[in-house]
Design brief:
With 209 residues, the protein is α/β, with parallel strands linked by helices. The protein has a single domain, classed as Rossmann fold, CATH 3.40.50. The protein has six helices and eleven strands. It has a seven-stranded mixed sheet. Strands 6-8-7-11 form a four-stranded antiparallel sheet. The longest helix has 17 residues.
């Protein structure tokens, strides 16, 4: 990283220990209760590009052993320099080889089947994808219906900006369990978790059934 780049990097966690723990608790809550929309704590100075909730989440989850892929709208921005400076991560050559992915709002989500699903021996070594969206809402008739571990009955989730074939992609991902990809969906201030153990269907399909 060039010296000029470093001068432009904004600070990270105001208190590294407290900040990272607070964000990690929010991430754990999101994965423990799939589809629940969780507000991210205001604990870090953020880059100018990218959604704040996505940035602070990756700041807490990523370290120097992690490979990260950034979608085109983020690659080369101050968000890239900020994340690398504060985590020590290295860049993956492509999405398929990345341990973490940060997908900007409006950029195409790489096909889930193309991402690292882990192995039978080490399913926990799979990819985690952080996807920026315009909005997340727990209500709405045209969204998704989630079932599975961590959900008492059903959980509704409206996630504006997912690809049209997301339900089919997710079904394939879920069927690979315990292998598979985990997702965090992020607005500027909130996140929702989609662990691979969660089943997803379209709300219209649920009503018709």
């Amino acid at each position: 990283m060039k010296a000029d780049d470093l001068q432009q990097v904004r600070p990270g966690f105001r208190d590294p220990a407290i900040g990272s723990q607070a964000v990690f608790r929010s991430a754990l809550s999101a994965l423990s209760h799939p589809g629940r929309v969780i507000e991210m704590p205001d604990v870090s100075e953020l880059p100018r590009h990218g959604h704040g909730a996505a940035a602070v989440l990756l700041q807490a989850l990523v370290d120097s052993d992690c490979s990260v892929w950034l979608s085109p709208a983020l690659a080369g921005t101050d968000a890239a320099a900020w994340l690398r400076f504060h985590t020590g991560c290295h860049w993956a050559a492509d999405a398929a080889s990345a341990r973490f992915l940060w997908v900007a709002e409006g950029d195409a989500l790489p096909a889930l089947a193309s991402l690292d699903a882990g192995s039978d021996a080490y399913p926990d070594q799979s990819a985690t994808c952080v996807v920026e969206l315009q909005a997340l809402d727990a209500e709405g008739a045209d969204g998704l219906v989630l079932t599975g571990p961590g959900i008492a009955s059903e959980q509704s989730l409206c996630a504006s900006g997912l690809p049209g074939d997301f339900v089919d992609q997710w079904d394939t991902n879920h069927r690979r369990f315990p292998r598979g990809v985990d997702l965090f969906l992020a607005t500027p201030t909130h996140i929702a978790g989609l662990p691979r153990s969660t089943r997803v269907r379209a709300a219209q399909t649920a009503v018709e059934a």
